[in-house]
Amino acid sequence: MSAWKQFLASDIIVTPFTVNKSFNFPYSQWATGSDNQLVGIDRFLGENSSWFDNKSTTGTLTTQYQALIYSSAKQLYYSNFLSSSTGDNVAQPVLFPGAGPSGSGDVLIGGVESPLYDNFLQSTLVSNRFWPTASNANILVLSVPSKLYGEYIVPSSFNWYCGVGGVEGAIVDDGQGNLLSGSTNVGNIIYTHGLAILTTQGQIYNEDLSFWSQETNMTCSFSSSMTIYETQYKCTIRESEFNFSLNPSLLSGSDGSVYSFATASYFSPYVTTVGLYDELQNLLAVGKLAQPLPTSATTDTTILINLDR
């Protein structure tokens, strides 16, 4: 039989913690994965050209326009780095609310040097981003789906290995959002979006882009990150609560009388199972104790239940 008790807000504690998982995909598994589930690691070529003049497409799993890949990456991640690899700051006035005559309105005063756009910087250090602006310049983008990287790719875990002739080597991230080939900065990684962007043509891939058209010995490895929330329910039995058992085996006969031992002062019911219910008394979870736990008539008894989600 069961007895009911309502949880208080102080009885429930939600604690977040971060878990990581490592992945290593050879190119043969970029589309199917080792468990034959769609992985969706895609590759795109971007070109600095007008979409009206260049309708060339790109992508190994999905199809996008090369001109739009270039334009999108430029706007999202490099719009503040077109003339300087450390960022293009412009003078912008500062808004002072209610600074007009007699506090009648807002006034723009002076100017401060600040960027115009949010380019999803991956570090608080001074950024180092190069963007090719020459006509028909190319960029390469590796796109990892969110179902693989979770909330973000763990910094310093990314490795993109390419074994194609003269451009054989590994591209790794430095933990600050930069992609390195040896000691050379060849692009950037956006950890929170699962994107690796190569912008330095000639350093890691050929002028004729033969690197991009071959898959021999190409692998991608990284660690994903996901926040799991652990909920702890504190089930407290006060010394004056649940001191009488509702087990029908304690009834001595059809008249419903209780065996005398069950009414003695030394008798203590045992707890074997804790169930969690919603407001409509629907059973949501069951916790089994390793061994029956006697309730106490002199001290409070607390049972902790942890659920991860």
Description of the structure:
The protein has 3 helices and 17 strands. Strands 1, 2, 7, 8, 9, 10, 11, 12, 13, 14 and 17 form an 11-stranded antiparallel sheet that branches. The model has no long low-confidence stretch (mean pLDDT 82). It folds into 2 domains: 174 residues, no CATH class; 71 residues, no CATH class. It is mainly β. The relative contact order is 0.16.
**Uncertain spans:** none
Largest sheet report: 11 strands, antiparallel
Residues in helix, %: under 10%
- Given helix and strand content, the structural type is mainly beta
SSE order, one letter for each helix or strand: EEEEHEEEHEEEEEEHEEEE
The outline comes out as elongated
Domain count: the total is 2
Number of helices: 3
Rg from Cα = 31 Å
Overall number of strands:
17
Q: State mean pLDDT (0 to 100 scale).
A: 82
